[in-house]
Amino acid sequence: MTAGTSAASAGGAASPAGSPGPLTDAEVERLRSDFPILGREVGSQPLAYLDSGATAQRPRRVIRAMAEFVERSNAGVHRGAHTLASEATEAFEGARARVARFVGAPAPEAIVFTSGTTAAVNLLTIALRNLAGGETAGPVPSSAPGLVIRPGDRIVVTEAEHHANLVPWQRLAAQLGAELAWVPVLPNGRLDLAQLDELVTERTRVLAFTHVSNVTGAVTDVQAFVRAAHQVGAIAVMDAAQSAPHLPLCLGDQPASGDVSAAAGVPLGVDFAAFGAHKMFGPGGIGALYGRPELLAALPPAFTGGGMVQAVTMRGTTYLPAPARFEAGTQPVAEAVGWAAALDYLDEDVGGMARIAEYEERLTARLLEAVAGVPGVRLLGPADQTDRLGVASLAIDGVHPHDAGQVLDAAGIAVRVGHHCAMPVHRKLGVRASTRASLAFYNTLAEIDRFGQALAQVRPYFGLTGAAGAEGE
Amino acid sequence: MGALDQLYQQLILEHSKAPHGKPLKADYGGESFQVNTTCGDQVRLHVTLGPGDVLEDVSWEGSGCSISQASLSVMTDLVRGKTLEEAATLSADFTELMHTRGQGFDDDAAADALGDAMAFEGVSQFPMRVKCALLGWMALKDAAAKAKAGDHTPAQIPEGWE
User: Fold this and answer.
1) Distance (Å, whole) CA A242 – CA A261
2) What is the ipTM of this complex?
3) DSSP bridge pairs for A267
């Protein structure tokens, strides 16, 4: 891709579908004005929001779409025959199709709405437990025997996981008498792929991994993981929470068409994936479990109740097919509408995820440079830009992350402090907690420079200067 | 003075760099282990009771942010030699101070008794940091109650902490 072509740098409309190229600085400036919150001040400083890895901000288009839906069409879905119920159902199913297109799913039915990434992984593990317990829904495809977990089988995760893609698997393994193994994190923050084939044994039923670490920013070699899983008939489960806001995603087996973002993604061929709207510039409270339709068809429900049944008698119940089978209870319709609006925004107003990914490469390079220049600051994770996104988790010598975050906040810079729901990878990299800056496409080089300058003030504020360990604290 | 400097008073910075009450004494009448799960701060605190329920000794080991470490240090100075009842009053007053949200603390008698601990008043403007300042006081309350009850069992440490 050529950077900064004349048409793009003229600051005109976002490139239309089919002619990508990174976002230009002028375009980013204009897109920023779509996010009301980015115009606010913190203290007396303009906000520099570097915490999009925790939750991303929302453009006006999302806020308006939700308000319009609530003001005009709010109603329960899949029940009632009145006009509002019909409009709400159309909006909800339209949002499902929109999400499916955006992530390169083979069909809308591959998308199960959940309350978020965490709920998506838990839904899957509970359904797998129910299947292991003898509850059946449909035939288990011979291509995926991994769906049925027996005592002594193995579940493999990685040491880089967010707790959301770790704790549910630990629990499932304990419940089913399965063995939990994990792909270790190397000192440079990347996964130790050399151990993958050895760890994924013949008894492995599940290989669950994150696409991008929320601590190190390292991008996983998805193809290597999918291959390793499928060689032994295991299911490949991917946490896409941190990748979906930054990279074009094609979760299915076939190259996608019909969506500028998905079309730019390499087909990943995972069996399941989990992701949430609020990190993708959409609302909180909604996410999705992606599943291959034939696998979803074989899974019993996790939760039961209204909206997921075919017929109920006092003796028993028959369930609807997926995805409705997994969506018991009242659904977050306005949130689904807002999520679809966020995806429209990304494709239409921004010009697609490929443009974002290319622009963010520049931001990431600047971030790594800014951090490398500050004495006494250690980056957790790869320092080279290959296969890593714009996340910089830092250990600041002699300064606790809470204190660092406080000093940065006083400069108007919002970062996250703590273990970021990933205690094992912190422990592996020798710290309990860190200070994390995480980027999105609406960040600017100038904001990263401000971050670098404020970061350089942190240790001096606490009376520390020079390189790490120089004071013998 | 900006809010940041109100938070990080000189006294707090000094105590956090050279905290009082360390190292942890091996003998104790009561032990507590407390963690702040959001950021990983932790403390193991020992108290020894003397005649008349006097806190003869308080010692601790731990790690955490400057607010938590300084608060432990100032607390140690404040409660050593006090009775359990006096310490409980200080603890209640300090907790109240932490919940003033920067609106001022008008209990002059309590302010006098808290002494150096009044330097933490600025923390009350930062609700996210209040639990940092209270970590040590939680540990004191727990360890003192165990010492009073004659419960010498080691504190339970959640898995993954040490």
Assistant:
1) 16
2) 0.90
3) A250
For residue B102, pLDDT over 80 is answered with yes
pLDDT tens digits, A403-421: 999 999 999 999 999 989 9
Provide the mean pLDDT of chain B: 94
Structurally, what CATH architecture does the domain formed by A67-347 represent?
3-Layer(aba) Sandwich (3.40)
Q: How far is CA A77 from the centre of its chain?
A: 26
Please list every residue in chain B whose beta carbon sits closer than 8 Å to the beta carbon of residue A170. none
- The pLDDT value recorded for residue A182 is 98
Residue A421: active-site member: yes
Q: Where residue A4 falls among pLDDT bands split at 50, 70, 90?
A: very low
- Which residues from B are below 8 Å from A when comparing CB atoms? 2-4, 7-8, 13, 17, 38-41, 63-67, 126, 129, 132, 160
Spell out the domain ranges in chain A: 19-58+351-461, 67-347
The conformation of residue A139, written as its DSSP 8-state character, comes to P
Q: In what order do the strands lie in the sheet with B54-63?
A: B30-36, B41-50, B54-63
What are the pLDDT digits (tens) for A207-261?
999 999 999 999 999 999 999 999 999 999 999 999 999 999 999 999 999 999 9
The kind and range of the H/E element at B9 are none
Mean pLDDT within B7-27: 96
Of B2, B13, B65, the CB nearest to A400: B65
Q: Which two tokens stand for residue B123?
A: 């923390």
Q: Does A17 score more than 80 pLDDT?
A: no
Domain count, chain B: 1
The CATH superfamily holding the domain A19-58+351-461 is Aspartate Aminotransferase, domain 1 (3.90.1150.10)
- B124: domain CATH number is 3.90.1010.10
> A65, A91 in Cβ contact below 8 A?
no
| A366 CB neighbour count, 10 Å cutoff | 21
